[in-house]
Amino acid sequence: MDIIVDSLRQAFMPKRDYDKLREEEKSWTRLQWPLLTATISLLSLTVIVSVTVSLAIVFPANGSNRPFARPASDYYLMVVLVPSSIIFLSSVTYLFAGITVAYSAPARHGCLKVVENNCCASKRGGGQCLSILNLIFAAIFGLLALFLSSSLLLLGSSCSLPLFWCYEIAS
Fold first, then answer.
1. Which domain of life does this protein belong to (predicted)?
2. Nearest to 137 by CA among 171, 163, 167
3. Total structural domains in the chain?
4. Cβ distance 121 to 146 under 8 Å?
């Protein structure tokens, strides 16, 4: 409760008084870690729940229980989930390899073979190249989410709408 009172007090404090505060007295620095942790936890929980629901639709406990959802489930699995998973896993691999190489510098690391290519062989360094490549992966993943998930709605089966929203939330 004290941190909320401090935050409100500091929000309406004149700038010169706020600048005089030490860094550990500023409430924003004390709130950053809990807010970041809560946000990441909420996003992770949302993705896990939506992926669990979509996989429960695609792979039900009783396989004969989905006669009308079978075409949509098969379409979702082969056309939507598999390509998105490939793009996502390659992006995560590239990201973690880049982070590993960056934090092991100046020593060479085995992950350097993953991120070393003609595109990233510039004099500016690999950090900017890795961020550009991850932005490209994000754009591809976003386009996949836009076009492939909207094609699920065109199937018109009873499970198309839940699969659409599960995929949109997860992506």
1. Eukaryota
2. 171
3. 1
4. no
Other Cβ atoms less than 10 A from the Cβ of 56: the count is: 12
Residue 65: both structure tokens together:
């229980």
Identify whether the C-beta of residue 129 lies closer than 8 Å to the C-beta of residue 120.
yes
Q: Is 42 exposed, middle or buried (0-12, 13-18, 19+ CB in 10 A)?
A: exposed
Name the residue type at position 23. E
Q: Rounded CA gap, 9 and 152, in Å?
A: 50
The tens digit of pLDDT for each residue in 34-79 reads 889 999 999 999 989 998 988 888 888 776 666 667 888 888 888 8
**Token pair recorded at residue 132:** 């550009």
- Containing 56, the helix (H) or strand (E) segment is helix 27-58
Give residue 19's domain range. 2-170
Sequence-distant (6+) residues with CB within 8 A of 155 are 71, 72, 75
Residue 155 has φ and ψ, to the nearest 5°, of -70, -30
C-alpha–C-alpha distance, residues 15 and 13, integer Å: 6
